[in-house]
Specification:
LysR_HTH_N; two-stranded antiparallel ribbon; HTH-type_LysR_regulators; alpha/beta; DNA-binding; transcription
Length: 291
């Protein structure tokens, strides 16, 4: 069976559009339409609803999609492994990194890795840990940094870093007189938070639910310099990792009471072939990272 129609079918399922699928695949739309018609004819089934501009999968199409994802992943893994056996692959690493670690923890590691392996292409995708985890599970990433406690059975992880999540305040904030800050006290203040999907936000939301508090979120942004600036000027308080706070930030930090520690790991799919390039990256991060 030619798997090209399955790739076209998956693209349509993901984009819900023949036009967008063709653009994503870099082919003409008629070619996509003809491939899907032939696939339906070969199977004797209708896979896609075509109603005006709305495109959706039939029940049969939804079942095929589950198999198509596995077939294409297995095919791609096999082709990659064969290329490596022939020595034809220079290697590529697609890694997802949360913005805070991407800005403050990973840059020297990435530069050092690139220096040691100049022929390996690094594709770094920034996003929230939840979004990156889903991309990893869907095969859009090879590796991703995730919060270890959220690890599903389909993923395997390697410990990366353990960092304390700190209450971050302006130097003249009343919390500066405290040694630690309880969650109840924290949630009495106006907050400067990451958007939903980022690990800090998920943990803050979980903390609020545990102590039955509603967070007073005054600002939502994924821009760390903006979070710092708003906090410096006293318009709210936030939570950041210690690695993010620099000497000239005019910010101070306090531990939660009790302290909140984040165990971050780098994960990959258990059922996929991990290329030589990805194995090299894992080993390098383990060698140069700090726990």
């Amino acid at each position: 069976m030619d798997i090209k129609p399955l790739r076209y079918f998956m693209a349509i399922a993901n984009t819900e559009s023949f036009t967008k699928a063709a653009q994503q695949l870099g082919v003409a739309q008629p070619a996509v339409s003809m491939a899907i018609k032939k696939l339906e004819a070969d199977l004797g089934l209708t896979l896609i609803h075509r109603a005006d501009r709305n495109v959706g999968l039939t029940d049969e199409g939804k079942k095929l999609l589950l198999h198509a994802e596995k077939i294409i992943q297995a095919t791609d893994d096999a082709l990659l492994e064969m290329r490596e056996l022939k020595g034809l692959s220079q290697g590529e690493v697609r890694v997802g990194i949360p913005s805070m670690l991407g800005s403050y923890y990973f840059p020297p590691i990435l530069m050092a890795f690139r220096h040691r392996y100049p022929t390996i292409m690094l594709k770094v995708i920034e996003g929230g840990t939840w979004q990156l985890q889903k991309m990893l599970e869907n095969g859009e990433l090879d590796l991703s940094v995730i919060v270890a406690e959220t690890l599903p059975d389909s993923l395997q992880t390697q410990a990366l870093i353990r960092e304390e999540m700190l209450v971050t305040i302006a130097t003249d904030h009343p919390f500066s007189t405290l040694d630690r800050v309880t969650p109840e006290t924290f949630f009495e203040e106006e907050l400067v938070m990451f958007k939903e999907g980022y690990f800090h936000r998920r943990i803050v939301d979980k903390l609020a639910k545990a102590c039955k508090k509603t967070p007073k979120i005054g600002f939502e942004t994924n821009l760390i310099p903006l979070i710092k600036s708003i906090t410096q000027q006293g318009f709210g308080i936030s939570t950041l990792l210690a690695m993010v706070i620099e000497d000239d930030d005019e910010l101070i930090t306090r531990s939660f009471d009790p302290p909140i520690w984040l165990d971050l790991g780098i994960a990959w799919r258990k059922d996929s072939y991990l290329s030589k390039a990805n194995r090299a990256f894992l080993e390098f991060v383990s060698e140069h990272g700090r726990g």
